[in-house]
């Protein structure tokens, strides 16, 4: 009589893999979906400018050589973006707005005021570092470049600016 143990092991492994794939552990995201996730969870979806600025930071990181060379690589980096950015459920109501902005950034659009900024934080957060040169506040975030302290000319976030990107404010 043959043992059923190997068959049970195969079934258990199959069940485990199926359950893990359901939690996103094995799901492979497209570059568009990764950009959408960064925009959806990092900007408060209050303005197209805020989403395009977040996307511009992602693309600046991709181009920098200091971060992963893909959008998904940058967005899924540990402790760099909102917790659960790659696994949380996205709001379907804002999906069309987010998708348009993400696709536009992937086609080459950048926020015209973002420059080389690779960093941002919530606009109401105040950091005590002396190397943060702020370039833009929009969509609930303050965007900045890291510079040598003597080269910082804008050490505080400026008032928010909206309506700069072509589609302007999202309703």
Explain what this protein looks like in three dimensions:
The chain has one domain: Cell wall hydrolase SleB, domain 1 (Arc Repressor Mutant, subunit A), CATH 1.10.10.2520. The protein is of the alpha+beta class. It has helices at residues 5-22, 31-42, 48-64, 71-75, 95-106, and strands at 119-122, 132-138, 141-146. The protein is built from 5 helices and 3 strands. The longest helix has 18 residues, at 5-22. A 3-stranded antiparallel β-sheet has the order 1-3-2, covered by helices on one side.
Brief descriptors of the model:
171 residues, alpha+beta, Arc Repressor Mutant, subunit A, three-stranded antiparallel β-sheet, 3 strands, 10% strand, globular
Summed up:
With 171 residues, the protein is an alpha+beta fold.
CATH architecture: Orthogonal Bundle
Beta-strand percent range: 5-15%
Report the uncertain regions.
14-26
Assigned CATH class: Mainly Alpha
Query: Could you describe the largest sheet, including whether it forms a barrel?
Result: 3 strands, antiparallel
Number of domains as seen in the coordinates: 1
Cα radius of gyration in angstroms:
20 Å
| Gross geometry | globular
Q: Helix segment count?
A: 5
Strand-pairing-aware structural class: alpha+beta
* CATH level-3 fold name: Arc Repressor Mutant, subunit A
End-to-end Cα distance, whole Å, is 70 Å
What is the N-to-C order of secondary-structure elements (H for helix, E for strand)?
HHHHHEEE
- Secondary structure tally: strands: 3
Query: What is the helix content?
Result: 25-40%
- The overall pLDDT average reads 85
Give the strand order, joined by hyphens, for the main sheet.
Answer: 1-3-2
CATH homolog superfamily? Cell wall hydrolase SleB, domain 1
GO molecular function, one term: hydrolase activity
Keywords: Hydrolase
Protein name: Cell wall hydrolase
Organism: Paracoccus suum
């Amino acid at each position: 009589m043959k043992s059923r143990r190997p068959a049970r092991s195969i079934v258990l492994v199959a069940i485990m893999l199926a359950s893990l794939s359901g939690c996103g552990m094995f799901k492979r995201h497209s570059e568009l979906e990764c950009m959408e996730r960064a925009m959806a969870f990092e900007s408060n979806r209050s303005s197209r400018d805020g989403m395009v600025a977040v996307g511009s930071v992602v693309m600046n990181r991709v181009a920098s050589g200091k971060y992963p060379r893909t959008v998904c690589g940058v967005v899924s980096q540990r402790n760099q973006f909102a917790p659960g950015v790659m696994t949380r459920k996205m709001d379907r109501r804002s999906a069309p707005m987010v998708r348009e902005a993400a696709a536009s950034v992937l086609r080459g659009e950048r926020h015209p005021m973002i420059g080389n900024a690779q960093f941002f934080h919530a606009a109401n957060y105040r950091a005590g570092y002396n190397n943060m040169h702020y370039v833009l506040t929009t969509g609930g975030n303050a965007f900045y470049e890291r510079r040598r302290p003597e080269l910082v000319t804008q050490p505080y976030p400026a008032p928010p600016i909206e309506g700069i990107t072509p589609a302007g404010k999202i309703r």
